[in-house]
Design goal:
By secondary structure, the chain is of the alpha+beta class. Helix content is 37%, strand content 18%. The chain contains 12 helices and 10 strands. A hairpin with a 2-residue loop joins strand 1 and strand 2. The N terminus is likely disordered.
């Protein structure tokens, strides 16, 4: 997902070009995924600077990932209330008027939570602080319940580059099969409830990535825009994005037999094709939920599927990720080695809580 080398994605791309490798449609598609779907290229600088002030530029021991989510909330709410057009360079003027004076106070150039809320009220209206806590969904704060009910998440697709699904098609022996470490969760029921509300997934965003749903439906068949940050540890993030769709969903409540069959097939594949990989669900555990996220064209990891599995074992519940990926094209493989592998593992449960989507789900599920 990310690392302390913020220019790794671009560096890998240029390195291939310098080596004389062909720059084709696949490489260009990946390059066009830089930034955000809701912001034009000329807005990337000030949006990045605003997120830096809220999180990345602050000292590591003073960062709060909830402040980063609040900063994203302000940006996305501003986009929503300005007709869902892409943000442009001139939009920085409104943000400077709302937040600029706070950034003059020490530590200079940063924003704390109180300043983010006060600036959000100046930018959007006095209703924003309460809405940020009580009326939010899809990564947006809504002034009224009626406004929230009328929101169409597909507006975000207006300027997106959503290509075809790209499930892994290579020979299983050539694919990467990997099981990430399980993350304890407060209860299986709480996690099922949390994951089953796609509009809440932006609330589980981390310092290196977040999911925003773009379909007006539940979890089955839902498509997510994933925004990830390279250079997060160094405080100089560079953002890119990809898309995944929930292509398969099984639950114990809906069809226990189908869930068990899916888990058995996944476990068999991990043991057979992985390199000393443990099964996603231990043999003595009871699966509760499984969902499969399939990539779309242009994804920063190439073609493949990642899966989230929830299970109960010995009176406790755990959430775990397991992925399968085709061999990466050269431009993605170089970027992954330079900037992606360590943070990919951290995001899917093997990092600190502020880095890990699974840990954030566990934390949020415990308070829902």
């Amino acid at each position: 997902m990310a690392s302390s080398r913020p220019l790794a994605l671009g560096a890998a791309f240029l390195a291939g070009a310098a080596a004389g490798r062909l720059i084709g449609p696949e490489q260009l598609r990946a390059a066009r995924m830089a930034g955000w779907s809701i912001a034009a290229p000329d807005a990337v600088g000030w949006v990045t600077d605003f997120l830096n002030a809220a999180y990345y530029r602050r000292a590591p021991d003073e960062r709060d990932v909830d402040d980063l989510r609040l900063a994203f909330l302000a940006v996305t709410t501003y986009w929503h209330r300005h007709g869902h057009r892409r943000l442009r360079a001139l939009d920085v003027v409104a943000f400077h008027r709302a937040f600029g004076r706070f950034r003059l106070a020490p530590p200079r150039g940063t924003l704390d939570r109180e300043q983010l809320l006060a600036g959000g009220a100046r930018l959007l209206g006095p209703w924003f602080p309460d809405a940020a806590a009580e009326r939010r969904g899809w990564g947006i704060a809504f002034e009224t319940d009626a406004e929230q009910a009328a929101y169409d998440p597909e507006w975000r697709l207006t300027h997106a580059r959503l290509g075809d699904l790209t499930p892994g098609r290579a020979d299983p022996h050539a694919q990467t099969w990997h099981t990430y470490r399980p993350v304890p969760v407060p209860s299986a029921a709480a996690v099922v409830e949390a994951l089953s509300a796609p509009e809440a997934w932006p609330d589980y965003g981390t310092g290196i990535g977040r999911f925003t749903p773009v379909r007006p439906q539940g979890l089955a068949g839902q498509t997510f825009e994933i925004e990830v940050a390279a250079g997060a540890h160094a405080g100089r993030p560079v953002f890119t994005r990809g898309y995944v769709t929930v292509s398969r969903l099984y639950s114990r409540d809906a069809d226990r037999a189908a869930l068990r069959a899916y888990v058995a097939e996944l476990n068999e594949g991990l043991v057979r094709y992985g390199s000393d990989e443990p099964p996603a669900v231990p043999g003595d555990a009871e699966p509760v939920l499984a969902l499969e996220l399939t990539t779309h064209e242009g994804h920063f990891m190439g073609a493949g599927c990642n899966r989230l599995v929830l299970y109960e074992r010995d009176g406790s519940a755990h959430l775990r990720a397991a992925g399968t990926w085709d061999p990466m094209p050269w431009h993605l493989a170089q970027a992954y080695q330079l900037a992606g592998r360590e943070a990919q593992h951290a995001f899917w449960g093997e990092g600190e809580p502020h880095q890990s989507l699974l840990h954030q789900v566990a934390l949020q599920a415990g308070t829902r």
